[in-house]
Amino acid sequence: MKSMGATQEEYYRGVRMVRYDLVKELVLAMVGVGVLALLIAAVLSSPDVPPVTIATWAQQNPVDLVTTATNELAGATTSAVYGPPYNSVGPGQSFGPIAPQKWFGVRIPIDSANTFVIQPLQKASFSNTALGAALSTWQNATADQQTKWLDAYSKALANATVTDGGVAVATGDYGPLPVMMSNLVGIAQAGGLDGLLAINGRFYQTDYTQPLLFMGDGTYLAGLAQQAHLTGSQWGMMNETGQYPGQTWLWLYTMWYQVTPFNSPTGFLGFNSSNADLGVIILMTALTAALALVPFIPILRDIPRWIPIHRLIWRQYYAPRKGAARA
Amino acid sequence: MSATSSSEGASPGATAPESRSWTLRLRQAIDRHLPMDHLLPDRQPYYVGSWVYVFGVVTIAALAWVIASGVVLSFMGPQWWHDSRVGRFFNSLHFWSVQLFFIFMVLHLWGQYFMAGWRSGRAATWMIGVIIFGISILTAFTGYLSQQNFASQFVAINAKDAMNGAGIGAFFSVLNFGQMYGLHVMLLPIGITILVVAHIVMVRTRGVVKPIDPEGGARP
């Protein structure tokens, strides 16, 4: 502490100085690192698996798309009951009185049933009278009637088959749902739903919240992510597609999701799998602050003195020398 | 012009009027705290001759390659590297420079930890280094979200829950490509660059910390 205000000359007084070329060292480092990066880039390239579109989803697994859309109407998807910042249906995560998700409220409003199903169909019904009539039937039906149609259709979808790219279910009383869903699949397979959700009445846009939330509600994208080892339970945040390294520096953050209390429904001390995201962020914030404050934390700041790695680093300094005083 | 006129005819040794000049005060402070022989030294204490000191300079070198390749990518636009072999190469250079940057930075951090590099008034240098590490993680994260490929899609879907659960998602939407791309190519790199410059200036101002005294502590 006593040398805090010392000038560099005072600090170095009595220390043996040797020749040093800072600029040469920097240039050599630039060249060396550059050659290494250029070589690795040329030999190994970089990952670029194309993104999944809603069109691909509808073509490869139309049953999953229709099941997801049906669940959106029933209010039974992840996004439908998410809570802030998308809607106020779910309470959001909290730890005791700490509930930042709730505090900041609904800032990116998403009404899943309307946003992902009804509004795209309304736009597509402009020149499609059959679809327009089906939508009118749906919207004029009572909530009880809609629930009965949704329940029956959801059960039928469990045994649905794909015929000529469309979804076929057993005969039953599903109201207007088969017409609505066959149109939705057709629009999606042609790429129209990608446009309707992404563009959403604008021309330029860079916000993909709607299509990503809709795809996240289905199982198709998650299934592909599972194959690529990208899901949360597979340490996904630090992985990349193929054999490439991902964000390996997130290993500690990702690790907490794999251990108790954050992977346990019952948890410990108020933390569990239902508030794991908030808990891990709180924990990582505390650990990052501790890392920054290491110089002021006893034990943590003393470990370098106890573990003699510094003797390897400065072995020239610590080596016994005849007739030479240490600085 | 009036300021120039007022000082005309003053003798070179007369400093009283100039001492009120902010410009002169700044210049004198720089001369006092960071003279050129501290900023660009040609002599160093003999104990600096350890391989661990290399990690700092190679981290800066990797950052320079990250920024250089990133400037090319941002100039050509986010679609370029998906459709062009040259673009793909620059993306690869960016990708691997980032990996090298983190490897070197972590080695530098561990090296400084075991050298207790915060001693003798260098705690702020350590703390700024940790902040650089944190902002670098955030920058890399927004980079992975800006790739516009399958990985960025699922990383976004996965990460939104962490951001939303902590309340951050209300302002920092990982599903919003425009926001993530803007942060990645502009604000966060500027923040890192400013802090790295501050970090280097602090190192050069104070000089390189001495080896741990066996009988001393590791206090700041």
Keywords:
heterodimer; A: 327 residues; mainly alpha; B: 220 residues; disordered N terminus
Q: What does this molecule look like?
A:
The complex is a heterodimer of chains A (327) and B (220). By secondary structure, chain A is an all-alpha fold. Chain A folds into two domains: 54-218, no CATH class; 227-294, no CATH class. Chain A is built from 17 helices and three strands. Chain A has a two-stranded antiparallel sheet. Chain B has nine helices and one strand; from the N terminus they run H-H-H-E-H-H-H-H-H-H. In chain B, helix 6 (85-114) packs antiparallel against helix 7 (123-145). Among the domains of chain B are: 50-115; 141-206, no CATH class. Classes of the chains: A mainly alpha (327), B mainly alpha (220). Chains A and B meet through helix 1, strand 1, helix 2, helix 5 and helix 11 of A and strand 1, helix 4, helix 6, helix 7 and helix 8 of B. Strand 1 (17-19) of chain A pairs antiparallel with strand 1 of chain B.
How many helices of chain A in DSSP terms? 17
**What is the ordering of alpha helices and beta strands of chain B?**
HHHEHHHHHH
Strand content of chain B is: under 5%
Structural class of chain A: mainly alpha
Mean pLDDT of chain A: 93
Low-confidence stretches of chain A: none
Give the radius of gyration of chain B. Answer: 23 Å
Query: Poorly predicted ranges of chain B (pLDDT <50, ≥5 residues)?
Result: 1-10
- Average pLDDT of chain B works out at 90
How much strand content do the residues of chain A show?
under 5%
The number of distinct β-strands of chain B equals 1
Annotate the secondary structure layout.
The complex is a heterodimer of chains A (327) and B (220).
Chain A: H1 8-12, E1 17-19, H2 22-44, H3 54-60, H4 62-74, H5 100-103, H6 112-124, H7 129-140, H8 143-157, E2 161-163, E3 166-168, H9 177-189, H10 192-199, H11 209-217, H12 220-227, H13 251-256, H14 276-292, H15 303-306, H16 309-313, H17 315-318
Antiparallel strand pairs in A: 2-3
Helix pairs in contact in A: 3-4, 3-9, 4-6, 4-8, 4-9, 6-9, 7-9
Chain B: H1 2-7, H2 22-33, H3 36-39, E1 43-45, H4 54-76, H5 80-83, H6 85-114, H7 123-145, H8 150-165, H9 177-206
Helix pairs in contact in B: 4-6, 6-7, 7-9
